[in-house]
TrEMBL record:
Coiled coil: none annotated. GO terms for molecular function: hydrolase activity. The keyword NAD does not apply. Pfam families: Glyco_hyd_65N_2 (PF14498), Glyco_hydro_95_C (PF21307), Glyco_hydro_95_cat (PF22124). Keywords: Hydrolase, Signal. InterPro entries: 6-hairpin_glycosidase_sf, AFCA-like_C, Alpha-L-fucosidase, GH95_cat, GH95_N_dom, Glyco_hydro_b. Residues 1-21 form the signal peptide. Transmembrane segments: none annotated. SUPFAM superfamilies: Six-hairpin glycosidases. Residues 310-722 form the Glycosyl hydrolase family 95 catalytic domain. It comes from Runella salmonicolor. This is Glycoside hydrolase family 95 protein.
Length: 819
């Protein structure tokens, strides 16, 4: 069958069937070429290590499923289980030395400024708290050491991960999913022969590894009646902050047939026909200032809610809840023979054997992780989403806001998951608490400020030392997401509600910006270009008093390019918001004048875009960050100010730093090349990412550490390759790779609150439907011989502007067919 408008029907979808014998016995059958390779990842071996396990989540609870036979391991998380307790890192009176630090920076005495900042403006403690691993469920099976016909898979269309194998002539199967409606993780065990399921279960806590700053945490494992196990404990003290989080985790078993008992810390089931295990967990966390909840009562309430419910009822509620999000969008790209291989083989062969549907799988996996880790009412996704098996995880598995947290939410609006941005919006609101204190005490400024890292407790002061902590635009960058949410939804009530957050950030920078010695510019001082050491301004290795170690140099400067670009965007968005809301007072006029004095994009002597206000180069040749390219993507300022010379300067930066790097860095490069219209280059980078910086589970890697940022970034970048709407109109197939010559994208969202369904063949658009979710004018890039009609066939007049852009006046809720 040719790949055309029937693309969605060109493959047999995953078969989902109920057993005739047991209506609550759910099974999935995967046979050769009998599944959708864009929404199913499958494997012919169990996970050998954590990052090969498959994730499920309901926004609050997460599990990584290994899919083993003799001893299964399911690693478990609860999103609010962190070290520490409510605390503050605000240091009073730092603003008194700020003028001296700024003077030293302008005098190019960077090391002196670095040390003065470290002694007076760094938050205390200088490190933050860590996201923790909650528990592991171990299932020890009898007589299942030798297996055949093994397969495990993750079905993104249902949110279920499954394993199936044959042992001693019996086929065993397990399904695991996380229910948002019932707030439990469900493990269903079945066999094709009655009385065949026998196992012992343990629910184990996790100890902190040896660390000089950890105090002893504790946990206790106990039976819970004759049908369950319970784990209770408290979080660790860290960096002088007392661990006050208490938790309870509980397993309840519901066997069908056979016997069940508890013996010490073991739950023992013998000769059952089928077994369902329900996992629930909670902490005493209420919010970032309050840990007064009762975890036992919370868990008790969860189990009370499901009491009397059948497995089928719980499953169907979870499936319906999940599909209301996932089914909004569908992406199909060309399918090849390799598309049906186990995922690790697909990954290895992609460089030499095109498999475009693997890109669609990556896109869909990013949406799946968003639904699984960021739901209304939950915490936002951290560096690892909600999945972490380490008590001392890389970078504490916290919120890093010089790129990573923002990247997590790059795809949320375009991929039709606007509700999943709610945790990020609430996160920004909560940061203004300590953020306003830091603005006042550290900088003597109004408004609020936030730097490059925070944790569950929403601390906002600089941390990790001046090299990293002088990034003052973390909160400003987050505020651009507020404007993006408005752009995609056109929700005036939301804009009015969040306008004070944007205004508070702008107020801080109106106080913080200082005249540059050249008399032309306003700049941030101190400033930094995240994590990159400049080879300029007399920078050289030095002994860092804060970290007591030798460093490459200091990153402190004045007016880094990323600072200027973020503020240019934020100030511009604030101008638009103020006009919509009728706020045209003196402050807005002052801010407009200040915006005109921000350092503009500059081209250095070598023809590349400057990363700093001064024409410095990076000490590291292939640095992972592209901070000075923020304004090209995800921002707008570099795109809006582009000239042929600047476009070449952007490309020179990308060429200099190369295509290889960490997972999140490659995702960013994909998006940047997509903005420049080069889909083949973006696709080449994707292939390198998937082979070298992606786990077989499709979690991205940052070096050797699994993270979710790169996974989310790839989802966003794939959208940019297929649709862009940042330039005031919708551009379809703006960076289409040759490999993706045909395909279909359904449900993708554009700014202006438009939802698009479109199909292309031989790189040519063949069908386009536009749903207007807010009314207003829809602008499209020029298309030849266009006819516009409503869904019922009524012709709609449209205007064609001199630049070729097509304008369609739309009605809220109406669907328009463009032919």
């Amino acid at each position: 069958m040719k790949l055309n408008t029937l693309l969605f029907l060109s493959i047999t979808l995953l078969s989902v069937v109920y057993s005739n014998a047991q209506h609550d016995d759910f099974a999935i059958k995967i046979n050769a070429k009998a599944f959708n390779p864009s929404t199913v990842s499958w494997y012919n071996t169990p996970a050998k290590k954590w990052d090969e396990a498959l994730p499920v989540g309901n926004g609050r609870l997460g599990a990584m499923v290994f899919g083993r036979s003799g001893e299964e391991r399911i690693q478990l998380n609860e999103e609010t289980y962190w070290s520490g307790s409510p605390y503050s890192t605000v240091v009073k009176g730092g603003y008194k030395v700020l003028p001296e630090i700024q003077k030293l920076v302008f005098e190019e005495k960077y090391l002196a400024a670095h040390n003065l900042f470290g002694r007076n403006l760094m938050g205390y403690p200088v490190e933050q708290q860590k996201y923790q691993s909650l528990a592991n469920l171990h299932l020890f099976f009898k007589n299942q050491d030798s297996t055949s016909e093994y397969k495990r898979w993750l079905n993104l269309e249902s949110g279920i991960t499954s394993v199936s194998y044959k042992s001693n002539g019996i086929t065993y199967q397990r399904e695991v999913f996380a229910s948002a409606p019932d707030q439990v993780i469900v493990i269903r065990l079945t066999a094709d022969k009655s009385s065949s399921i026998s196992f012992k279960a343990n629910l184990r806590g996790v100890r902190n590894q040896a660390h000089s700053n950890y105090a002893t945490d504790y946990f206790r494992m106990d039976p819970y009646g004759s049908d369950g196990l319970i784990l209770t404990g408290k979080s660790a003290d860290y960096m002088g902050v007392a661990g006050k989080l208490k938790y309870e985790a509980r397993i309840k078993a519901v066997p069908e047939g056979g016997t069940m008992k508890t013996d010490g810390v073991d739950l023992i089931i013998e000769n059952a026909n089928a077994v369902t295990l329900y996992f629930a967990a909670a902490t005493n966390f209420v919010n970032y200032k309050d840990v007064s909840a009762n975890p036992h009562q919370r868990v008790e309430d969860y189990f009370t809610k499901i009491k009397g419910k059948s497995y089928t009822a719980i499953f169907e509620a979870a499936l319906a809840d999940y599909k209301q999000y996932f089914d909004r969008v569908s992406l199909q790209l060309p399918i090849t023979e390799n598309s049906f291989l186990p995922l690790p083989e697909r990954i290895q062969k992609i460089q030499t054997n095109p498999d475009p549907s693997l890109s669609a799988l990556s896109y869909n996996f990013g949406r799946y992780l968003m639904i699984a880790s960021s739901r209304p009412g939950t915490e936002p996704a951290n560096l690892q989403g909600i999945w972490n098996d380490d008590m001392n995880p890389s970078w504490d598995s916290k919120y890093t806001t010089n790129i990573n947290t923002q990247m997590n939410y790059w795809p949320v609006e375009s991929s039709n998951l606007s509700e999943c941005a709610e945790p990020l919006v609430r996160f920004i609101k909560e940061l203004t608490d300590q953020g306003s204190q830091v603005a006042r005490e550290h900088y003597g400024a109004k408004g609020w400020v936030f730097h490059q890292n925070t944790d569950l407790w929403r601390v906002a002061a600089p941390m990790d030392g001046p090299t990293w902590g002088t990034f003052t635009v973390g909160g400003a960058w987050l505020c651009t997401h507020l404007w993006e949410h408005y752009q995609y939804t056109m929700d005036a009530a939301f804009l009015k509600e969040t306008y004070p957050l944007m205004k508070g950030s702008v107020q801080f920078f109106m106080d913080f910006l200082k005249p540059h010695p050249n008399g032309k510019w306003l700049v941030t001082n101190p400033s930094t270009s995240p994590e990159n050491f400049p080879d300029g301004g007399g920078n050289k290795p030095y002994f860092d008093e804060v970290t007591a170690s030798f460093r490459e140099g200091t990153t402190i400067c004045a007016g880094s390019s990323i600072d200027m670009q973020i503020l240019d965007d934020l100030f511009g968005y604030f101008v638009e918001a103020s006009a919509i809301l009728g706020d045209n007072g003196a402050f807005v006029q002052q801010m407009k004048a200040a915006r005109e004095k921000l350092v503009p994009p500059q081209i250095g002597k070598d023809g590349s875009l400057q990363e700093w206000a001064d024409d410095w180069k990076s000490l590291e040749k292939n640095h992972r960050h592209f901070s000075h390219m923020y304004g090209l993507y995800p921002g707008k300022v570099l795109y809006e100010k582009r000239t042929p010379a600047l476009i070449e300067a952007y490309k020179k930066v990308l060429e200099e730093r190369g295509d290889a790097s960490t997972g999140w860095s490659r995702a960013w490069k994909m998006a940047l090349w997509a903005r420049l219209g080069d889909g083949n280059r973006a696709n080449k980078i994707y292939k390198g990412f998937i082979r070298e910086q992606s786990c077989s589970s499709l979690f991205a890697l940052c070096g050797r550490a699994p993270q979710v940022d790169g996974t989310f970034g790839v989802t966003a970048a794939i959208t940019e390759m297929l649709m862009q709407s940042h330039d005031g109109f919708i551009k379809l197939l703006p960076a289409l790779p040759d490999d993706w010559s045909s395909g279909a994208f359904k449900g993708v969202c554009a700014r202006g609150a438009f939802e698009l369904d479109y199909v292309w063949k031989n790189k040519q658009l063949t069908q386009l439907r536009i749903k207007s979710k807010a009314g207003g004018i829809c602008r499209l890039e020029a298309l030849p011989n266009v006819r516009v009609a409503t869904q019922n066939g009524k012709t709609v007049a449209f205007q064609k502007l001199p630049n070729g852009i097509i304008e369609i006046k739309t009605v809220k809720g109406e669907v328009y067919v463009v032919e």
